[in-house]
Design the sequence.
């Protein structure tokens, strides 16, 4: 069985998932070396950690964030009472 057609990233050390040990059946980031179990997870990592994609924005002020949890923490600051 060969790698999925059109995939941008190959598992480390092999072109077939069936012929490699489980620890080598991972997708590795060429920028930092972190490994992932799927090419989708690797692509999301690269976009958010190494590129400037900021898909989450504050609905109050429009500030953009790379991660949803950061946006959520920021959004709570708009609910602070001045009393």
Sequence:
């Amino acid at each position: 069985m060969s790698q999925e057609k059109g995939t941008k990233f190959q598992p480390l050390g092999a072109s077939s998932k069936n012929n490699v040990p489980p620890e080598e059946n991972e997708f590795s980031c060429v920028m930092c070396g972190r490994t992932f179990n799927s090419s989708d997870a690797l692509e999301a990592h690269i976009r958010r950690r190494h590129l400037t994609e900021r898909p989450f924005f504050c609905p109050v002020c429009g500030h953009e964030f790379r991660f949803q949890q950061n946006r959520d923490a920021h959004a709570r600051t708009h609910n602070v009472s001045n009393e």
Q: What stands out?
A: The first helix runs from residue 39 to 50. The beta strands are 27-28, 35-36, 56-57, 64-65. The longest strand covers residues 27-28.
